[in-house]
Input
Amino acid sequence: MARTEAARRVRRAETGPRALPMASSAADLDRVIHERVRLGIVSALAATESLAFNELKRLLRITDGNLSVHARKLEEAGYLAVQKTFEGRIPRTAYRLTPAGRRALVRYLDHMEALIRAARPR
Output
């Protein structure tokens, strides 16, 4: 397919009801959410009110360190709220998606859908 045809498809996809601005492209994706593990965390939390550290770790099949690093990045962006408590002497960490995190996920999904529509042959 010619490069100009791909550009026309992008422009057509960007004029629909959930259109992206003309300058939008894959490079404009939210890089905080776009990373595989962080997208998994945000997606899992979008489906439930909260998840414990160990639940997320098992669900995503990642290490403690990997989950900690990615959760911290999402927390710094304001997408995740973290609650740390103790049950006896055992620390418990629970995560929930913030309203800003939910909005960011919806924007990310809308952006991906527009890119997919633009890439599909008509």
